Amino acid sequence: MNPEQLRANDLSKMKGASSWLTTLPLKSENFTLNKREFYDGISLRYRWTLKYLPSVCPCGKNFDVDHAMSCMKGGFVYRRHDDVRDLFANLLKDVCYDVQVEPHLQSLTGEVLTSRANSSDEARLDVSGRGFWQRGQRAFFDVRVFNPFAKSHLNRKLDSVFTSNENEKKRQYNQRVIDIEHGSFSPLVFTPYGGNGREAEHFISELSSKLAEKKQLEYSVVMHWLRAKLSFNLLRSAVLCLRGSRTIKQEVNSDISNVQISNAIGRIE
Q1: Strand, helix or coil at 29?
Q2: How far apart are CA 229 and CA 233, in angstroms?
């Protein structure tokens, strides 16, 4: 196998990466895929060549799978991130209180942070909630979905790539959250192909435990359900990045203010 196929094989062996394949197709949980989504999912999983892809992206660059996973045009990369964020935010509401999406961090008033820390007054994180790790303490979470097939990552071990992405987030926010917010910070790092970092694994385990306790369900049942939710979420987002339209559409005149005049003119013989 070539390096990309070896990387794909490593990703497929990570916890939760195969959940979309091993879960029953329950419509009630949206655990279903259409034919195109399934074929694309299999091809992405094994790094097989995909059919019927455009050769050039509307942004002007050559189009391939790796470009699709990082191209900002069309907003699909942002949607992929937001879908994961919203999934966790909704679940946190069941086990925490004071849950907020994209909470602003307190402004600096003379505090000194490290050079790589985010010191902007507009800094914000993805989700926060009180009582997740410790009673009454505010826990902050920030989601990142990165492409493990990027040239900068391909020659490195997968665990090392996850760790470097987590550490980058920590350099930006950990000190600020601990010193100023007096809270905790956890970077939640994933790939579009499944798999997650150590911090995300700890978070998923704790979240499953809390949900199981509250809903009076077996921990293993809740864990499988959560991994399946996340797996389908990431797969659909990856397929959308591949197949979603990035074409710039021409604006259509939809002003309805002159509808009576247009109608009258249209009846003139």
Answers
A1: helix
A2: 6
Q: In the predicted model, is pLDDT for residue 268 greater than 70?
A: no
Q: Is 100 helix (H, G, I), strand (E, B) or coil?
A: strand
Which of 51-55, 185-189, 211-215, 235-239 has the least mean pLDDT? 51-55
Mean pLDDT (whole number) for 220-248: 93
Find all residues with CB under 8 Å of 195, minimum gap 6, and list them. 11, 14, 15, 16, 17, 148, 158, 162
Residue 32's region, left for phi above 0, alpha for psi from -120 to 50, else beta, is: beta
pLDDT at 70: 92
Tokens of 202: 């700890």
Cα gap 95→251, rounded to integer Å: 46
* Whether the predicted pLDDT of 262 surpasses 70: no
| Reported pTM | 0.88
